[in-house]
Amino acid sequence: MAEAQNKSVYIETFGCQMNKSDSEHMLGLLEEIGYRQAESIKSADLLILNTCAIRAGAEDKVYSYLGAWKKIKEQRPGSLIAVGGCVAQDAGQTLLKRSPGVDIVFGTHNLHRLPDLVLQAQSRGEPVVEIYPELPDDLPETPVVRLNSTSAWVSIIYGCDYNCTYCIVPYVRGREKSRHPDSIVAEVEELAAANYKEVTLLGQNVTAYGHDLNPAQHLGNLLERLGTVDGIKRVRFLTGHPRDLKPEIIDAVASVPNACEFFHLPIQAGDDRTLRRMARGYKVDFYRRLVDQIRKKIPEAAITTDLIVGFPGETEQEFLNTVSLVEEICFDACNTAAYSPRPHTPSAGWGEQVPEEMKYERLRFLNSVVADVSQRRNRRLIGGTVEVLVEGRSNRNAARLTGRTRTNKVVNFEGGDELVGQIVTVRVEAANAWALRGALA
Ligand code: SAH
Ligand code: SF4
Ligand code: F3S
Question: Which residue range(s) make up the domain with 417?
Fold first, then answer.
């Protein structure tokens, strides 16, 4: 190993939980060559931007950040800027042209190479670009510095084998590759020993876990194994494709005590023609039946989703079908977005692009319905009690603690610092679309 240095790193993360988890692994890797977390961006020796390419807005943000960072770097001679994540994976060398001042470009398949790339950039004094076309087969386990002390992320499958016609993820994250269950269980056991009570299993398509292992297995098998880890009270998983949520996975959530009654199942649209053109591989009816199965087996389950509005060719009526579906399913929460044409995706080149203003008008309307439905759903909990894992003080009101239910709902209530990291029971007194408020029971 290289001689340890006494340097500091500042990291900014855009995008999904997978990226946030990757950032924690970057910090772990860099710690091994003597980089601790910087107190502020201005005092950092290394600035890392972990990027997201899902929509044009996320990508544009990368270049505007890098413009500002170049000025910060000029104030601190010798400091370095590294860019990783999905935009870097796609852009590679071209990122240097658009953002002079960048010293290191690395991708989504070679995080483990970061320490070496940093040392190279330090000694060479010229930019280093390294992008792998896919994950290596012998991917080493990487160290991690966790930024949250109550809840931990654990990646279980990388990549995505679907080819939804709007989505850049398969292009920047590669094909599905599951982690061996023994190493996942070992990581979760370590987390339990470090007093973590909650883990979230991550993947771009977590419900496909295990199909590529030998012997093949499924997410339900993994949930059963994790159900035996003492001290871990909650296990969740994100994000799954509805088509891969097999009955045996729902059964495992129903029967394993620490598996949480929470299903994030992106439907994307509530209209069959749109779903077909998105190449989602299911119809609205399939999704309805899936929700029925979940609610029959686990009545208290929360179901959340992702929705895209303004997909090319989406008519007013097709959009309204999505709106009605939100009302019909009564989702606990929905992530909504206006369609954004992405490079390497077929739908970006289609005619019939929906005009920008119309997309945003649809988005605003959908958001108002979503808020209404979520509020109704949350208000059903008023008067009852919920189990809350306390995460810390609320940002909005320092007298309050904040935490989440097993169903991933935010709960705010008054209490002392000694409760942070504990699981408590809260009586729900009020609810809006985004959070519950209550008092210790
Ligand atoms: N694997 C998950 C989704 C991962 S991407 C699944 O298929 O369910 C996260 C979300 O970003 C998607 O669910 C989708 O709603 C949104 N998204 C992806 N590509 C998009 C695009 N081109 N424009 C707008 N939203 C997009
Ligand atoms: Fe993208 Fe999800 Fe479709 Fe994969 S399944 S292509 S990640 S939207
Ligand atoms: Fe964004 Fe890459 Fe995640 S594109 S949503 S950071 S997989």
Answer: 385-440
